[in-house]
Amino acid sequence: MNAGGLVPDEIVTDMVAARLDREDVKQMGWLLDGYPRSSSQAGSLEKLQIRPDLYIVLDVPDEVLIERCIGRRLDPVTGKIYHLKFFPPETEEIKARLITRPDDTEEKVKSRLQIYKQNAEAVSSTYSNITNKIDGSSSKEVIFKEIESLLSQLQQEKVKLHT
């Protein structure tokens, strides 16, 4: 991760599968953010018969993603994440202690982005029949509203199936 790479597929898949097997998840459902990231991970989920009802892709231009990542800062005291432009710290004291995470340099972000692009097509093809693209360069309010709408539609469809 510090080199800008990803955690090995087997480790992440084992962690995800273990968590999805817990009772609260079986009752309440689940949402995965940024996973699966490779065709191997998607294939592992398929073999375990773990399939999402909905696959959402946030479509964001590279320049925007890079700006969002390299502007992030971590408060080592509270663990809170800030962004120098979009979510600045509340005080100068907090600003003075902020650090850049080792994986948020421009070089490492570009490396992660390249890896993502290599894998995204294969993952999307696994879920092509349930994929929904959303403009991720919109405001978070607009994005949340679109996601909420997709989830509401899905819930309504499930209710219709069970009645």
Automatic annotation (TrEMBL):
Keywords: Kinase, Nucleotide-binding, Transferase. SUPFAM superfamilies: Microbial and mitochondrial ADK, insert 'zinc finger' domain (SSF57774), P-loop containing nucleoside triphosphate hydrolases (SSF52540). Its EC number is 2.7.4.3. The keyword Kinase applies. InterPro entries: Adenylat/UMP-CMP_kin, Adenylat_kinase_CS, ADK_active_lid_dom_sf, P-loop_NTPase. The keyword ATP-binding does not apply. PANTHER family: NUCLEOTIDE KINASE. Belongs to the adenylate kinase family. HAMAP family: Adenylate_kinase_Adk. This is adenylate kinase. It comes from Lupinus luteus (European yellow lupine).
